[in-house]
TrEMBL record:
Residues 85-475 form the Solute-binding protein family domain. This is Oligopeptide transport system substrate-binding protein. PROSITE patterns: PROKAR_LIPOPROTEIN. It is found in: Cell envelope. SUPFAM superfamilies: Periplasmic binding protein-like II. Keywords: Peptide transport, Protein transport, Signal, Transport.
Length: 558
């Protein structure tokens, strides 16, 4: 899913994934933190987020901020536990799988004690309704292609404007056998099936409630109902929101936190000051702050699985030229960028699919097998630049660099601008900073020249990084199109039994995207450096899907 630049790791230097946990003693509720089992204390966390919630609608959300909220207030058939294992959630267990007419029929039995926050039971029809809504032709969902990726019967035809079945969502291969029996029909084997069933796009929605709310659904805390560990009790736009433990949640006995208060705090310096003053329990670091705190006992780093890059809008008269894109991609020093500006464990990336993410049939890491594809080389960049200028018949190029707001993001954008202008004579770049939600809208409508972007894996397979650049895909928001690339991705989607051939197709697709077409300028694979108070436990960051859920977090009495 889309990440906010760090540069966010999640980002934005705000690493999204690091909403910062704060001391419960500063809770807006006035309650002290501790064990809720004590009777005298409640477990309350105060969290700082870099961004407002873009959406509470699981059928349309596609960004990391929204997904991290989804993971705590909604739930699907599966979920990720504190050990990063995919385990049944609303499903009672793994499905019964039967072969019928050349297809695989998956039958899930659902929990009978699962309820929405208004007391209404969660039923199989809630899944059918939500999935049909995602895939409908009127849907704005950028993730609707996941149903075709999954191989759900007729999904590809329902999504194809040239098919007689286009838009006929009642033909989708899913049905409610009864209130607590959900059945889906798949046309192929998918190695990451459980990963998708834990992904928010596949979460249920209650039809009666949703349609009663109409256009108001998901816009406010009180126009949404929840079926996850927490509910959103309060939401003050651009200021913050409050989670409360969901009394109707089927597994509430294993939820430690009673309340989480989230306040929007954009400035990194402010968050660090809050941490040092004991008002927050966790804060992400980067740049010089990493150097300052790296020897503290509460300091930790890790290499994540999100990759950040620059996207080029190929509708731009300059950027539709391959040599211009390649020159830009090779013109900035990534190693210096992560070492001088990030300092948080991030590593330079000359690739799209991250290191240490997934292995192929032979047991070798995808990244190690496919190597580096588009690296820093200022001399070669200048040659490609001059060739591109000649092809375009110009000697000067003016471009706008769309980036996230905030001082840290500005510094990083300025670094890229200076590197590019220094190594590419005749280039002039104007930096345009915008809030995260505005950025999403500008990207969707291709109202940019080139933009800072990032992607975190939705499921554990290279396809999660690659299929979004198919011609016409909802996430292909840069007008990129290559028939050879499309062929490789479509082959990998359909040849799921020939694992070696599928893996080779995915490797070749990445090479076409970066090495042949220079469609993106990869920058870095995210690292995270953060400080966490010793009384905070099990703040788990997941390798794919939403970064975390508060279900497993606990805070000792302190």
């Amino acid at each position: 899913m889309r990440k906010k630049a760090k540069w966010s790791f999640l980002l934005a230097v705000v690493l999204i994934m690091s909403l910062f946990l704060s001391a419960c003693s500063s809770s807006s509720s006035g309650e002290r933190s501790g064990s809720s089992k004590d009777g005298d204390y409640k477990q309350v966390l105060n969290v700082a987020s870099s961004e407002e919630i873009p959406s509470l609608d699981t059928t349309e959300g596609d960004d990391q901020v929204s997904f991290n909220v989804f993971a705590s207030v909604f739930e699907g058939l599966y979920t990720m536990n504190a050990k990063d294992e995919l385990v049944p959630a609303l499903a009672k267990g793994d499905p019964k799988v039967e072969e019928k007419d050349g297809h695989s029929v998956y039958t899930f039995k659902l929990r009978e004690d699962a309820k929405w926050s208004n007391g209404t039971p969660v039923t199989a029809n809630d899944f059918v309704y939500a999935w049909r809504k995602v895939i409908s032709k009127d849907s704005k969902a950028t993730y609707k292609s996941l149903f075709a990726t999954l191989g759900m019967l007729n999904a590809d035809k329902i999504l194809d404007p040239d098919s007689p079945m286009y838009g006929k969502v009642d033909k989708l291969g899913v049905k409610a056998v009864d209130d607590h029996t959900l059945q889906m029909t798949l046309t192929k084997e998918v190695p990451y099936f459980k990963s998708l069933m834990a992904f928010p796009t596949f979460f249920p929605q209650n039809k009666e409630y949703r349609e009663k709310q109409g256009k108001k659904y998901g816009l406010e805390a009180d126009t949404t109902i929840y079926n996850g560990p927490f509910i959103l009790e309060k939401w003050e736009h651009n200021k913050g929101w409050v989670y409360k433990k969901n009394p109707n949640y089927w597994d509430k006995e294993n939820v430690s936190l009673d309340q989480i208060n989230v306040k929007v705090v954009k400035e990194l310096t402010t968050r660090i000051n809050l941490y040092n003053s004991g008002k927050i329990d966790r804060v992400a670091l980067e740049g010089d702050w990493v150097e300052k705190y790296k020897n503290k006992k509460d300091f930790k780093t890790y290499l994540g699985t999100s990759v950040y890059y620059i996207k080029f809008n190929e509708k731009n008269k300059y950027l539709k030229n391959e040599n211009i894109r390649r020159a830009l991609s090779m013109s900035f020093n990534k190693k210096a960028f992560v070492n001088k500006l990030m300092k948080d464990g991030s590593v330079p990336a000359d690739y799209l699919v991250p290191k240490n993410f997934t292995k192929g049939p032979a047991g070798k890491d995808f990244r190690a097998a496919n190597g580096d594809l588009l690296g820093y080389n200022p001399k070669e960049a200048k040659k490609y630049w001059e060739k591109g200028l000649k092809e375009l018949g110009v000697d000067k190029v003016n471009l706008e660099f769309l980036s996230y707001d905030g001082p840290e993001n500005k510094n990083q954008a300025v670094y890229i601008k200076n590197q590019m202008e220094k190594n590419l004579p005749g280039l002039s770049i104007n930096i345009k900073q915008q809030p995260f939600k505005v950025m999403l809208d500008l990207e969707e409508n291709l109202k940019y020249d080139f933009v800072w972007a990032g992607w975190g894996p939705d499921y554990q397979d290279p396809m999660t990084f690659l299929d979004m650049f198919l011609t016409g895909d909802g996430h292909n928001q840069m007008a990129y199109s290559d028939k050879k690339y499309d062929e490789k991705i479509k082959f990998a989607k359909t040849h799921t039994k020939d694992l070696d051939a599928r893996w080779k197709a995915l490797q070749n697709a990445e090479k076409i995207l970066l090495k042949d077409d220079a469609a993106l300028a990869p920058m870095f694979q995210n690292g995270s450096a953060f400080l966490t108070k010793p009384y905070v436990h099990d703040y788990v960051v997941h390798p794919f899907g939403p970064d975390y859920t508060y279900k497993y977090v606990s805070v000792d009495k302190h």
